[in-house]
Amino acid sequence: MDLFVSGSLAYDRIMDFPGHFADHILPDKIHVLNVCFNINGVVEKFGGTAGNIAYTLSLLGERPRIVAAAGSDFDRYERWLVENGLSCSHVRKIDDVPTAGAYITTDLADNQITAFNPGAMLYPAELPDWNAPSDDVLIHIGPGNKQDMTAFAEKARRTGASFIFDPGQSLNIWTGEELRDVVRGALCFISNDYELTHFLKMTGWKIQQLFEHVRLVITTHGPEGSVLNVRGDKTLVPASKVKDVVDPTGAGDAYRAGLLKGLVNRFDWLTCCQMGSVAATYAVECHGTQEHRFDWGGFLARYESNFGPLSPDLLPEAPTGREASARGAA
């Protein structure tokens, strides 16, 4: 199956606030908000939704094609992606513009405040053609350049390719009418619970109206797990056990990678969501969104400890050669 992952490529500047945001925000003064959070320092990591998802997919033995734009400072990020077996052939390079940057502050309750400089992401990427028949193409449309998201969805509808719509933190750049149009025909709508509520408010839809345009809805709820909603038939997928919670940043992107791995191998939706739940645990156990490492055997063992064994008749082959030897154990 041809797998394309679109969205952002960014440098993440991650900061920890040794307190709780809620203790410093006065509800009756929210209209004149003026707060400062003294942080414990800043660490720069590779990030962006497209890069994060593709990275975890590489650990799972997949080689998705990243569709995004990057800036003149992308060289070291590109080397990292190539070292992990990922091609940047569909990444458009923009001269004299920095790669996008996310400034993420997390408090002790794992609440996050993010500021995002789009940089090169303001420029559209060049959408690829695919070699496989359209019914063997899967596209993840994640938060990134608005023109790319719209054009990719339209191309998928026109050619009959399957796409997942994942608006994420891009919701603030859309109008309700635009969102109602772009989501049409999606195989799946995926978001966290806050984003789903915001999406429905912006579109003026009830969840039943969303189901008129998408096959199913997946909603993540952080440590409470995720919900697979097939036209009102809801299934709770528990969060997988985490060895040590270090940083929640990137857990949602890792979840999406596990989900996509299952879909590429044509597992049922519940299994795909469970694979997403397991993949997310690795990201939570590390600082940064592309610091975790695992091998296929370790992933299967962790899946089994949470949800029971995957059917051996359905399992894809494990990564081999350099890619297998380069991965650390679970």
From TrEMBL:
Report if keyword S-adenosyl-L-methionine is assigned.
Answer: no
Transferase keyword on record: yes
Classification via Gene3D superfamilies:
3.40.1190.20
Q: Which InterPro entries match?
A: Carboh/pur_kinase_PfkB_CS (IPR002173), PfkB_dom (IPR011611), Ribokinase-like (IPR029056)
Which keywords does this Swiss-Prot/TrEMBL entry list? Answer: Kinase, Transferase
Recorded GO molecular functions are: kinase activity
Carbohydrate kinase PfkB domain location is 40-291
Q: Which domain of life is it from?
A: Bacteria
- Record-linked PANTHER family: RIBOKINASE, SUGAR KINASE
Q: What is this protein called?
A: Carbohydrate kinase family protein
Q: What is the lineage of its organism?
A: Bacteria, Pseudomonadati, Thermodesulfobacteriota, Syntrophobacteria, Syntrophobacterales
